[in-house]
């Protein structure tokens, strides 16, 4: 999720627009009312790129872990379809459970809307264990602590990331 290539692209595009604006402004008479707007294309392009290229850190604190065994499995999604199907998370990971509260920090996350799903695989079998009625036997949670009555929807669990963000997810 690092944006080094985006930063280089941004710098090249900024230089290109500055050169274009300079050539354009040299063709305009200084008395022209358009002369004062000669840098407007640069500001519009670089401003929109800077906004889309901003990255932030997400610090997740997962609490209410009841068993100090197994692994915490988490996935972050940026759209409703991948959230529902769990097919293409933006990022997914695992953290060994060593305490009742775990902190996970993701660096350089682009600005946008995201939803987080996670569960505590206490017996490390790679799946969410359920009882005969299909109810979870292992801890699970969602961003915004959504999903009080069943799985949370993308809409209920999505969070907007525009700057460094700390969230707490309480396992059920």
Tell me about this structure.
The strands form 2 sheets. Strands 2, 3, 5, 6 and 7 form a 5-stranded antiparallel β-sheet that branches. Residues 2-14 and 48-52 have low confidence and may be disordered. By secondary structure, this protein is an alpha+beta fold. It is 28% helix and 31% strand. Helix 1 (4-27) runs antiparallel to helix 2. The longest helix is centred in the N-terminal third of the chain and has 24 residues, at 4-27. It has 2 domains: 4-53; 55-170, Immunoglobulin-like (Sandwich).
Please outline what is shown here.
The chain is an alpha+beta fold and 172 residues long.
- The overall pLDDT, averaged over residues, is 80
Question: How much helix is in the residues?
Answer: 25-40%
Instruction: Report the count of strand segments.
Output: 8
What share of the residues does DSSP label as strand, in percent? 25-35%
Determine and state the CATH class of the largest domain. Answer: Mainly Beta
Q: How many separate helices?
A: 4
Can you tell me the CATH topology of the largest domain? Immunoglobulin-like
Low-confidence stretches: 2-14, 48-52
Rounded to the nearest angstrom, the radius of gyration is 23 Å
Distance between the termini: 29 Å
CATH architecture of the largest domain: Sandwich
Q: What count of domains describes the coordinates?
A: 2
- Largest sheet composition: 5 strands, antiparallel
Can you tell me the overall shape? globular
What is the SS-derived class? alpha+beta
